[in-house]
Design goal:
With 337 residues, this protein is an alpha/beta fold. Helix content is 64%, strand content 15%. A hairpin with a 2-residue loop joins β2 and β3.
Amino acid sequence: MTTPKRVSDFVVGATVLVVTIVVVGTVLWLKQADLSGKTRHLLVRTRDVGGVALGNPVVIRGVRSGQIESIALGERGWVVLKLGIDRGVPLPSDPVVLLAAASLFGEWQATITEATALPADRELRAAINESRTSSDTLPGAVLPDIAQLTTVAGRIAGDVAKVADRVQVAFDDQAARELRASIRNFSRLSEQLASTVQLQSKNLDRISSDVQRGLTRINAAAANLNAFSSRVDSATSGRELQLIMANSQAAAKELLAATTHLREVAEKLDRTEGRLSSAVSQADSIFGKVNAGRGTLGMLVNDPALFVQSDSLVRELRALVADVQRNPKRYINVRVF
């Protein structure tokens, strides 16, 4: 038979064994140990980890795919994180790791994303590029958490308060009056500017109309020039231009001959004019002498008795002619032998 001492020893040993198994299983469950080999490990290189701790989740495209297994300081002050993720989860192209707060209660996570999906933050992108290496280690960086943003917002609020105080000190009653005067001046300036713009708009309309008419005339002149060019082209192709040039040369020769003839005629006219002037001078001298009563012609022209006698002689001749017509036999006697 089994003694009571042996039974108690067996119970104690079984209890210790069960407790050991439970403790080991609990530790492995809490550490999420990979006993089946379904986890692969990735190394992340970053300058800082922020509030990241062991066991924080690793998220890919918003899905938890692993956890942070270790955090250690590396060479030259770099921090190296060891991530354990499921082997069946594919990594994005050109992966980078962002360490950021997951909630307002201080929980952090590591997010694996593409480099092209990074926020448009120059400092963040510079930190990612600085942490890149030629090995399989992924580059990482820390996103600002709520506490940092709150601190920055507080600092900005303090700066705004200081600026507001300075504005309040600078903006006294005198500044308010000057501001109102400036506003009134600006209003008058706006009215003057509006009237000027309205006046200039009319001038611009008139100028645009003139420009439009000018363009129309230019287009018409261009069309005429084009037609003239076409005519010149057709005339050149039909040997009409050569004929016109030949006729022009002949006309030029004839014009030269006519010009020479006109020059000779002009010279003859000059000589004739001299002679005519001399003749006019002589005639004027003669008419002056006649008018003065010198010479026979002058005496005949200026003697009134000669005019009277000539008039009486003409009357007597007329009376004689009339008498001859009435009595021709008195004056003409024809005898036939």
